Amino acid sequence: MNSPQMVAALVRAMSNSNDLETTRCAAGTLHNLSHHRQGLLSIFKSGGIPALVKLLSSPVESVLFYAITTLHNLLLHQEGSKMAVRLAGGLQKMVALLQRNNVKFLAIVTDCLQILAYGNQESKLIILASQGPVELVRIMRSYTYEKLLWTTSRVLKVLSVCSSNKPAIVEAGGMQALSMHLGHQSQRLVQNCLWTLRNLSDAATKDQMDGLLSQLVQLLSSNDINVVTCAAGIISNLTCNNQRSKVTVCQVGGVEALVHTVIQAGDREEITEPAICALRHLTSRHLESEMAQNAVRLNGGLQIIVKLLHPPSRWPLIKAVIGLIRNLALCPANHAPLREHGAIPRLVQLLIRSYQDTQRQRSSVASNGSQPAYPDGVRMEEIVEGTVGALHILAREVHNRAIIRSLSIIPIFVQLLYNEIENIQRVAAGVLCELATDKEGAEMIEQEGATAPLTELLHSHNDGVGNACFNAPQQFY
Fold it and tell me: What's the whole-model pTM score?
């Protein structure tokens, strides 16, 4: 071990010999040396890595085993080994070895791939080009050896954050293969499968996922926070703009489970945000959406949902809650409880704050050309549009209109008719038309000088504004 010349001679013998027995003995000796730090350093310095990678094509089982385990030890413990393995073409050779069927051997190969791919984009692309995703998914479908399933799921987890590998894994049937193991008794395997599914789920929205969605709804009742976080995130991604998935989740009790999850989660936004987003998807634009809007109320969800509009909630969560309240307001039975829980004053508060922020940003951009900062990645224009949109739907009810009138917000609605964002014009026109159905509201709007701009908007050829104002009183025509 302390003789670099000796190790170098072994590496040469292993590389150059045509005698299989000599190669096997030399590889076996290097394997034994690789269990010691000094041995690893000597193998590395003697150019052992290219020689070992070359042996990954050997037809002899024992030579293959010695080569892969020695490389594994080097990758784990010897600095510089990862780069040397990549440069020697080790990744391509290792992916080719995934077609073998010895589970313990495969567990070592997949662990090597995980070490090489983690944090290295080039390695991920080489694995993809070598058909790695197809082989890894096949392993997840074909074997039961826990350690192999776990090491393979770790490679897939690393690859699932790569935008090129993600669609390839989905196409190879990765979602279905990973979901096969969600009931496994090994927590580390279930956890890795869930994280990977979460990473993949925004690329898999075209697929039919009925079985997986049913499992995920059950996992929402887990005691493990990580499991609940992932399950909520995957449900949210899979129900985005997917009518079939929305209906499936509703039919397997998903609304009740998500409401319960939000109630249990308290201030843990890593759970509440995806759960609220999922509920927002489920309460809109599909056959069961009305049932979902009612189910949120019947399962005691309205009070906690309104509470999430308040601190310490951050902007991404607040934005999702506003969208959910808008959908819930489409159901007339939700109007009174939303009003009683204080939804309207809080929405107005958020509107005033976000509107003032957009005004400030506009004047700072005009005066010094600075780019606006988006708190937590949310544009304040999105909050303006969301709050006005929710108030527009809530204003369909007479008592709600009285509260909105009392909160001195009509001047801001009028200002928003002049906003450069068409959607904001549309919802502002919509809420004003609703408010104008009462005599008091119509007078307040007239006092603000809004009758002319509102009439002009209604006569413009903007279908969105026209549709938003189908309740417009006669005086606007």
Answer: 0.91
